[in-house]
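Supplementary Text 2. Reproducibility record for the structural model of the 309-residue chain.

All settings were left at their defaults, and a single model was retained for analysis rather than an ensemble. We include the record here because the model underlies the residue-level annotations in Supplementary Table 4.
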Amino acid sequence: MDDLTGASAGRDEAPTRLLVIGSVPPTLVRAVAASWITPISTIEQRDGVEAIRVRECAGLPDAAILAAALGPHERTACLGALVEYYPATPALVWIDQPNAAIERDALIGGAQDILGPDIPAPQELRTRLLRAAYRQQAQARIRELADTDSLTGLLNRRGLIRQSVRLVQLARRQECPLLVMRFDVRGLKLVNDRSGHPAGDLALQAFGDTVRDTLRSSDLAGRTGGDEFTIVAWNAGPDSGQRIFDRVAQEYHERTAPECIGLSAGWACWTPSMGSDLDTALEQADRRMCEAKARSKADVNREKETSGR
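Retained model, structure tokens:
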């Protein structure tokens, strides 16, 4: 790691970082560092995709330069990892000679600009870097919208699956358990029939707000069905399930939930020995949620029978 500014180290403002992946000419690296929106204070050299996945960087990179000479497979993997782990970081690809196929694949893979063997003049370089930053912001916003449930603001099914893959990778490296919870918001049909669908939407939004305010920033939560939600809690075992359920249920009903609304949930623990996905834990949690939902219906039916006698 090189300190480019020296004097800036004593300032209160956060340092700016340039992530360099592969063999990129030092002259180009320094030109980009000097021309960036806020001059780069530190440069971090990384060798390949694994260094990106394990988040070895000292902080969120402000920009990244990738050497095309890494090869097509490693280059594609690095661009994909940058999109996954640093979605707000513009990625530039440097090529030592013009190559239309490499440029096309790099741009499709997530790069915001291609830098050739000749370093642009400072003003031109600054303009291109600024455009790359704006382009990355727009792409990150599009990805965020694509992964978000528009009603609750939580992740949708696609977003939860995509982010849980990354969480599992991190949990396997750190040997941490994950608690998978499935929630069903019961009684929405009755709310819709009595008060209209806007009332049902408000009940779902209230549950989304409850989950968002109750869970930690390290946890994932998404709406994965019409009235079904999934939570993946970081470094939590099966003993945490009841505690999380009680906290969510209490907070939800204190907010705005109608009396006819109820919650059913099931949970299961994932451990690193279970492999690289959450499929088994999800199936177990879903089955237990369905069992809890069936018990709740049975209790309601018994109450109806008792009251009707």
